[in-house]
């Protein structure tokens, strides 16, 4: 099988690596640093093809769309119209991420437990709703904001200022001119990736990610600074509860609304004292969740994706008992105005650490053939180990071997989970 993977980030690198266990992969456009030959003899290569023309390309057997923007723009619909099997929802289902107001409305109609909320374009009405909330305030852009359009704060003045900046277009342009304001929820967060086709879903192993830039969840939100899997608090019983109360009702509502959802549904959930509640849906593999979940899948991932794309029955995959930890290395001054163009040293050394794979998030090839930084999140250093403690040690061993000017990373990824696991033994 030849699979075309659309995208160029670490998520797409992780998807390609999982597919390449049993299939040849073209990353479109990817970047040259992602190209590799797998031990099984299948290959990953990068080509700057026009995704719009893939429906006419008989060479490619399956298209997997990585990022959210082309899905919201309807690329999956256009490729399917050209006769190509596509892993990824059409534009109608992609509105679950393309519009948070759409998502909240659908979840409410489906009876999915979530935070109390309001949708606003008027500043006065938004500020009035804020005054009715207590504790934490959550302010979200309605449209896509690359994972950075959410403010969570206990400071009412900060929440008001954020609403003003978003509604005015100052902070996120058109994506922020409509905002969703929610009451803050408390509890550990869990990311659950669910393969969906024909109105049914199969859960992959849960993960937990870290959004804040600094240790101890301090500093501004980012696209994600690390993740790990499995999650001690997300037991089999908790996953079953999330599926029964959150995901399955959502899939039934999509069917009722005439939406044929084929792809992955990312359910961001909070485990509150009242049970799991939905925080958000994404319509693609999480990043960096993909870098810790996909390496644990032992089944034929290419066949799984093809089953989803063709709307067939999804066989639950076999999952490794190993643990995975991913540490993101970000550029200087990320997430504001990240510095780029710095040479990256030590990638070869990091690759020699047992169980480690370095996924390229924001890199390119420099003039002299060297790998240089090209984005805010630069590398996702992922490691597999016998348990979380082992995987965490391996990931940080590899991180210490890599360097570039101004590199920043969190030192506490999976730290609390390791302590919890040890205490429960």
Give structural notes:
The protein is of the alpha+beta class. It folds into 4 domains: 2-96, Rossmann fold; 116-183, Dna Ligase, domain 1 (2-Layer Sandwich), CATH 3.30.1490; 189-309, D-amino Acid Aminotransferase, Chain A, domain 1, CATH 3.30.470; 323-423, Phosphoribosylglycinamide synthetase, C-terminal domain (Glycinamide Ribonucleotide Synthetase, Chain A, domain 4), CATH 3.90.600. The protein contains 13 helices and 23 strands. The chain has a 6-stranded mixed beta sheet, with helices on both faces. It has a 5-stranded antiparallel beta sheet with strand order 13-16-19-23-20. Strands 7-10-8-9 form a 4-stranded antiparallel beta sheet, sandwiched between helices. α6 (123-130) runs antiparallel to α7. The mean pLDDT is 94.
Number of structurally distinct domains: 4
Task: Tell me the number of strands.
Answer: 23
The CATH topology label of the largest domain is D-amino Acid Aminotransferase, Chain A, domain 1
Largest β-sheet summary: 6 strands, mixed
Task: Report the C-alpha radius of gyration, rounded.
Answer: 21 Å
Percent of residues in helices: 25-40%
Mean pLDDT: 94
Count, helices: 13
């Amino acid at each position: 099988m030849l699979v075309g993977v659309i995208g160029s980030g670490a998520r797409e690198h992780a998807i390609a690596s999982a597919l390449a266990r049993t299939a040849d992969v073209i990353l479109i456009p990817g970047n040259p640093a992602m190209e590799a030959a797998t031990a099984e003899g299948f290959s990953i290569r990068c080509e700057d093809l026009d995704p719009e023309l893939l429906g006419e390309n008989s060479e490619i057997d399956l298209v997997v769309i990585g990022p959210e923007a082309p899905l919201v723009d309807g690329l999956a619909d256009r490729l399917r119209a050209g006769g190509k099997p596509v892993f990824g929802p059409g534009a109608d289902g992609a509105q679950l991420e393309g519009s948070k107001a759409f998502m909240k409305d659908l979840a409410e109609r489906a009876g999915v437990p979530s935070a109390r909320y309001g949708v606003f374009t008027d500043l006065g009405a938004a500020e009035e709703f804020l005054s009715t909330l207590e504790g934490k305030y959550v302010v979200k852009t309605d449209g896509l904001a690359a994972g950075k359009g959410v403010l969570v704060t206990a400071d009412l003045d900060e929440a008001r200022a954020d609403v003003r900046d978003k509604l005015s277009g100052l902070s996120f342009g058109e994506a922020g001119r409509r905002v969703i304001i929610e009451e803050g929820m408390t509890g550990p967060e869990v990311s659950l990736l669910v393969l969906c086709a024909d109105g049914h879903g199969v859960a992959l192993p849960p993960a937990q990610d870290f959004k804040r830039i600094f240790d101890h969840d301090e500093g501004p939100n980012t696209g994600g600074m690390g993740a790990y899997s499995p999650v001690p608090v997300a037991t089999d019983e908790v996953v079953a509860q999330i599926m029964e109360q959150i995901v399955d009702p959502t899939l039934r509502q999509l069917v009722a609304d005439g939406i044929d959802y084929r792809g992955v549904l990312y359910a961001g959930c909070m485990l509150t004292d009242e049970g799991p509640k939905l925080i958000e849906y994404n319509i693609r593999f999480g990043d960096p969740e993909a870098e810790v979940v996909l390496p644990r899948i032992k089944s034929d991932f290419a066949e799984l994706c093809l089953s989803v794309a063709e709307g067939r029955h999804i066989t639950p995959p076999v999952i490794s008992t190993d643990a995975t930890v991913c540490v993101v290395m970000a550029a200087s001054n990320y997430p504001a105005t990240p510095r780029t163009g710095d040479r990256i040293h030590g990638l070869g050394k990091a690759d020699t650490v047992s169980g480690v794979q370095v996924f390229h998030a924001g890199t390119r090839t420099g003039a002299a053939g060297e790998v240089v930084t090209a984005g805010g999140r630069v590398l996702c250093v992922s490691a597999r180990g016998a348990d979380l403690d082992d995987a965490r040690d391996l990931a940080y061993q590899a991180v210490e071997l890599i360097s570039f000017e101004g590199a920043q990373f969190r030192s506490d990824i999976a730290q609390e989970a390791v302590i919890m696991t040890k205490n429960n033994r």
